[in-house]
Amino acid sequence: MISHFFSWGIFGVALMSLALVHYVRRQPSGYWIYIILFLGPPGALVYLAIEWLPELFDPGAFHFIDRARRMREVENSLRQNPSAGNYEELGLLRLDKGDWHGARVCFDRALEQRSDSIDPFYRRALAEVELGDFSAARADLERVVTADAGYDFQRAAGLLAYADWKTGDLDRARRLFEQVLRTSTLTETQLHYAEFLAECGDCEAAKHQARGIRDKRAGMPGFQRRRERKLFRANAALLRKL
Question: How many CB atoms are closer than 10 A to CB 106?
Fold first, then answer.
């Protein structure tokens, strides 16, 4: 059985390695792991053609190259000029990279110097949500939403509802979720509301919300489905539980 892994020589091993690394990082549909492992290099080639190759044409597919270069430049600039603007830019770059702790530190230092803009509070809140510090995120998001209720296409308000839920303010969370979702179509906010309903024991409403998320996936362009695959995977897991 193992021999088919090496049936294409080094090229086949490289194909399988690339497919497995991509699968672990992106975590698409679960059946792909069986196709890669049981079919060997041909399965890996099919996987890469269907899942990996289209990503090369997505908007910003090679953004990480420019991001790494820009991070080095800003880090060097900070040694000479530790300004709020430089810290904010580095914080944005670290957010984009997924370095939540590093991003939070940058926005902390930027806000020590100036606090006349709500954007650093919002960006710090994004890092705090990812780190699970919902009390801190709630305070920052409260400030943002008070100043601009529709900030970042109402994502700030949706995350405030999420932080309300996670800090135990269920009544306000429900009111804010319902208010935001009258006009917002963000998958993240819709999923958080479905999870909130499920935890509150309102399983039928949670199912209805989760099915709506599942159904809207079919109408999305491919790059958007790939960008939100983590959310759709969480939604599928929620539907299985319900």
Answer: 28
